[in-house]
Amino acid sequence: MSNEKEYVNEHFLDRLIREELEYSPFDREMCTRFPPEPNGYLHIGSAYAIHTNYTMAHKYGGSFHLRFDDTNPLKEDLEYVNAIIGDIKWLGYDPGEHIYYGSDYSETFYNAAVTLIKRGKAYVCDLTAEEMVSYRGTLTEPGRNSPYRDRTAEDDLDLLARMRNGEFPNGSKTVRARIDMSSPNMNLRDPVLYRIIHAEHYRTGNEWCIYPMYDFAHPIQDAIEGITYSLCSIEFKDHRPLYEWVLNELGIASPPRQREFGRLNLTGVVTSKRFLRTLVRDGHVDGWDDPRLPTLQGLRRRGFTPSSIRSFVEAIGGIRTESTIDISLLDHCLRQDLKETTVSVMAVMHPLKVVITNYPEDTTEMLPIENNSDNKALGSREVPWSRTLYIERDDFMEIPVPGFHRLIPGGEVRLKGAYFIRCEEVIKDPDTGEVIELHCTYDPITKSGTGFTGRKVKGTIHWVSADHAKKADVHLYDKLLLEQDISKRDSGEWAQLINPESKVIVSDMLIEPYVAAAVRTDKELRFQFMRHGYFCVDAKLTNDERMTFNRIVPLKDSWNRKG
Prior knowledge:
Layout: H1 12-21, E1 31-34, H2 44-59, E2 63-68, H3 78-91, E3 99-101, H4 106-118, E4 122-125, H5 129-136, H6 153-164, E5 174-177, E6 192-196, E7 210-212, H7 214-225, E8 229-233, H8 240-249, E9 257-261, E10 264-266, H9 273-281, H10 296-302, H11 306-316, E11 323-325, H12 328-339, E12 343-345, E13 347-348, E14 351-356, E15 365-370, E16 380-385, E17 388-392, E18 412-415, E19 420-428, E20 435-443, E21 460-461, E22 464-465, E23 470-477, E24 503-511, H13 513-521, E25 526-529, E26 533-537, E27 547-553
Parallel strand pairs: 1-2, 2-3, 8-9, 10-11, 12-25, 14-20, 18-21, 23-27
Antiparallel strand pairs: 4-5, 5-6, 6-7, 13-24, 14-17, 15-16, 17-22, 18-19, 19-20, 23-24, 25-26, 26-27
Helix pairs in contact: 2-11, 7-8, 11-12
């Protein structure tokens, strides 16, 4: 065995697979798969499952498959297929040529059902869904055999063929496994393998009207593709005996193995597809890519990077059970990714006018400012300075509170990358008393970068030139829901749970001109707006006339604070 030090950072799934592979249980190379149903968009929890399957395959020199579990025509759509493929490639887990569809195996599923019926391991049942529930029993009481369980194989094969030919209506018949109605595992109490669905399939049209259940199709698909490990979340653990039963009864040699890992949840985030679909369908959010949603498309539009999401799932490691991770970890991974890669620019969200009374009119001075203090390689840019500026309104306080070190009447601060200014006069609205303008003077010898070592100031604030600033809309985000536990809620109440401040729009934010010039050439850019956080261009809303930015994350964890 290799040096044990190599395995210090292994999590339980690593160790389990490594130890099994040492006994060479397979006649083929390592192969895993991610099998989404194309009935919605992927979310942050999906990223963990994708990462687990992809990294395990590549760690052992194998391949990773993307396979669509598209055997329910009532819910599936090509829109979701394309979105899922795009999301997985964006994350960096490209399956390459290994993209498969369960619907391509329809004939194999049918033949498998025929085989099981011939072997006395399956039968056609006429019980309705309601009757089947009553026959199934409970956790403390065994189930009862279906009255149709003892038909002959010949009769069942005839009924199966007629089901395929479309002779029976939806719900009138099913194909069920013949296992054990008294099994303590409810999944083994003659589970349904096939059902009738008269609906057009997005890929096969009306060729089929019977479709396999996931628990039947899943192991067969894995066997066809040569999957070695079906790595799935913990809720499928009780389904593993059925997975193994199907493979065993079909006589699959060197069968794939199902192994489970923990299910990922995040604080303050709901990933229920039913809930997300309702929000989108009823117009409570701006589509599946709404930046408030935990979908990968929503996170991407909000400005999250693929590398930050990969870092997040890597940091979680292996989890055995259903676990809830604090969302601040995801934000931390994003900040670490953006800290040294984004340009830090000046943007004023709530502007207060400042006139530099001793600076000449109709004069513009270009001042060099570094792009990122943590990464000198990003260089610098030139920012225009003029007589009239804007600063943040909360950077001035007429009657300062203790500890306030920004601009006050008679006080002095440095403007970022520029000069010291002193507030000489406060102009107020005569009707409301609101401060509307400051008259200040600047000291030309205090210019940044000149080595000035005279008097000190405690505060440095950002600013933009009034004559050069560009306007933009910004979206600030908070939690989507007022409460996170929707399990006991009726779906009709969900709209009432939406946080009215989950998206706050600030219009006419003033941004230095460098940003507008950069956005014209690249709408995928991200910036740090000094003191406000990390922002990205919302390419969906930005056009030649107006820029829109989404705040990706504040500079510090503020998930529980207002936007």
